[in-house]
Amino acid sequence: MTVTQEKLLEVSNLKQYFKTGRHSVVKAIDGISFDIYKGETFGLVGESGCGKSTTGRTIIRLYDATDGNVKFKGEDVHGKKNSQDLKKFNQKMQMIFQDPYASLNPRMTVMDIIAEGLDVHGLSKTPQERKQRVEELLERVGLNKEHANRYPHEFSGGQRQRIGIARALAVDPEFIIADEPISALDVSIQAQVVNLLKELQEDHGLTYLFIAHDLSMVKYISDRIGVMYFGKLVELADSDELYKNPLHPYTKSLLSAIPLPDPDYERNRQRVEYDPSQHDTSEEPEFREITPGHWVSCTSKEFEAYKQELNKN
Amino acid sequence: MEKILEVNDLHISFDTYGGEVKAVRGVTFDLKKGETLAIVGESGSGKSVTTRALARLIPSPPGRIKQGEILFDGKDLAKLKEKEMQQIRGKDISTIFQDPMTSLNPTMKIGNQIMEGLIKHQKMSRAQAKSRAIELLELVGLPNPTERINQYPHQFSGGQRQRVVIAIALACNPKILIADEPTTALDVTIQAQILELMKDIQKKTESSIIFITHDLGVVANVADRVAVMYAGKIVEIGTVDEIFYNPKHPYTWGLLGSMPTLDSTEDSLIAIPGSPPDMLKPPKGDAFAPRNEYALEIDKEMEPPMFKVSDTHYAATWLLHEYAPDIEPPEAVKRRMKGFAQTGAGESKEGERP
Ligand SMILES: Nc1ncnc2c1ncn2[C@@H]1O[C@H](COP(=O)(O)OP(=O)(O)OP(=O)(O)O)[C@@H](O)[C@H]1O
Ligand SMILES: Nc1ncnc2c1ncn2[C@@H]1O[C@H](COP(=O)(O)OP(=O)(O)OP(=O)(O)O)[C@@H](O)[C@H]1O
Ligand code: SF4
Ligand SMILES: [Mg+2]
Ligand SMILES: [Mg+2]
Questions:
Q1: CB of residue B121 inside a 6 A radius of ligand 3
Q2: Where are chain A's structural domains?
Q3: Does B259 contact A187 at a Cβ distance shorter than 8 Å?
Q4: From B218, which residue of chain A is nearest by alpha-carbon distance?
Q5: Which residue of A265, B105, B281, B340 could cross-link B345, Cys pair, CB 3.0 to 4.6 Å?
Q6: How far apart are CA B137 and CA A199, in angstroms?
């Protein structure tokens, strides 16, 4: 895989607040910044409800951002106004959703679901071409072409998710936001899909934002990983570095909770609990670079302590 | 140990335009009191259909139980009238479904959805039900439950919705809890909390759990026994140690081999080649044969019976036949097994577990 130094996506100080009552607001994402380079896979992990899906959905403009901005190939995504620009942008950036049930229209056949993007963007010229492309995509994601004329409810959870992946791939996007694309799949199909995503990346230079909580899979597929906690990024590093030298106590807790396929290990597992009150509160934490490419949200006191911790290792 | 549920030769089909989809083709297992049985297996292998049938939640038409028995508490649930089944469902047998969105009503506040059952089945007052609902949400680790009971499902993240569904299922201390991918939408720390919570409740109430998951790490954590399904059948069943440290079926080998480990550096994962069989036309012989590099001639002709490996361990593969050639599991699985052996895991530990 060739990861370039060319920034494909630049997210700066992105905020997404939801009003949930007259006086209450949920700060689903609260000022996060990161770049994604062309050709890389950027993994995003974190606690349930910390804002991973909201980040993905805001980037692709399913929501308007409360504040901050997102640039795709140097162009401001949230500034796009005319429908022509938007359409082009929509083809380049696709999303695979977390919930394979809610994201497929129950009244459409698999053929029409997958071909929807082809139709919108006028990518297939004849009905035969359309059919052929859909069948190709079905096989690519591990389904049969016989499945094309069936409806979503006739499929198991995992099969539905593969339909969603085929739909995203249909329009030849450059950037895919994959929101827990494999959580609903069994491990053998997960491996197929992950291998497929990697293959597609190599062949077409695709870039991924890969949202997941299966940390062994995230580590396997990602070049870099960002860890989120309550709407903020708390740590960001190359994936090997993150697993070898986790610094933020939340990251440590996350890593200690990964279930491993070893019954004996599981019987003796020791989990590290994260206690947010353990932090130094003398100042607001900032995102600081501890070693090149390894960023942690911390105060200046913690910064020194983390640096020492790394030197010891 | 006392059996609480016995499933014998269960067959379930769906009548579709394309023909009869034979989703479950002869499943037999039992569930003991207080144990956790994990069901693993490829997507589409019939895990959800099998377990939905136990609570008689297969939509009919198009689905039907063609054959087989589901014995619970002296009754055959496969033949029970819907009215009698309503007495059992939710109270004795409670379910957490794979898709949290479809099990929650999008137009109803979360609190009311939890309270509804408590008021109806447990005869609680509204005030009692409300404080119990808040307590349950706290139990499953949802922050600010007092505020959140007034919100609607779309205001919850995927994992938060799933925790609500778990709270509803646990409300009644069921005898059998069927949990279909209950933690798949959750991050590992919340997952660990929920698994601990389920184990805790299980210890207190001696309930039995059927746990469906793709995550073999979770299986290793929760299961006493494991059933491996392929194409509508159980192809291997045994204690958790037997399945992880002494797997016999090539499909189980494939499953274990396709998990990345945290220190894996390989360029690609070992995926089981091909796609699952089309259950409109299940293949003749061993359904896994077309994808199995170890397949013998006989696999293409005749379906293997269950061979006994130990009193608790059975596998349906001709490789276990006395005349079968000696075949070693793939390197990745052997490495895994050896790695485990080095740490002392997996050596026979009789008496430690059921
Ligand atoms: N439309 C909405 N209205 C109000 N609150 C919302 C809305 N969507 C999300 N939230 C809240 O924003 C927060 C972040 O949600 P999000 O779906 O991004 O989490 P997540 O990290 O993807 O979690 P999970 O791993 O469980 O999917 C949650 O507290 C959620 O309740
Ligand atoms: N309503 C239905 N109509 C037709 N076929 C169905 C229906 N429900 C399930 N099936 C078929 O039954 C088979 C078993 O499905 P099931 O949902 O039990 O799989 P599963 O093992 O739970 O898979 P997953 O891990 O993806 O959830 C699949 O081939 C599926 O296509
Ligand atoms: S209280 Fe809830 S869990 Fe218990 S029987 Fe009623 S609906 Fe089912
Ligand atoms: Mg999410
Ligand atoms: Mg299922």
A1: yes
A2: 7-243, 246-313
A3: yes
A4: A259
A5: B340
A6: 42
Span(s) in chain B for CATH 3.40.50.300: 3-223
- Closest CB from A49, A157, A257 relative to B43: A157
- Nearest by CB to B43, from A48, A99, A158: name it: A158
Q: Does domain A7-243 have CATH number 3.40.50.300?
A: yes
Nearest residue of A to residue B268, measured between CA atoms: A195
The one-digit pLDDT tens for each residue of chain A (313 residues) are 456 689 999 999 999 999 887 888 889 999 999 999 999 999 999 887 899 999 999 999 888 889 999 999 988 887 766 777 777 788 899 988 866 667 788 899 999 999 998 888 888 889 999 999 999 999 887 788 888 999 988 887 667 878 888 898 898 899 999 998 877 666 666 777 788 788 878 887 899 999 987 777 888 889 999 999 999 999 999 999 999 999 999 999 988 888 888 888 888 888 888 888 888 888 889 999 999 999 999 999 999 999 998 887 6
ipTM of the complex, rounded to two decimals: 0.77
Is CATH 3.40.605.10 the classification given to domain B3-223? no
Is the CB of B91 within 6 Å of ligand 3? yes
Q: Cβ atoms within 10 A of the Cβ of B283, count? A: 15
B15 Cβ neighbours under 8 A, 6+ residues apart: B21, B61, B62, B64
Angle between helices A157-169 and A187-204 (to 10 degrees): 0
d(CA A79, CA B141) in angstroms, rounded, equals 39
Asked, as a colleague might, if the bond just before A106 is cis with ω within 30 of 0, I would say no
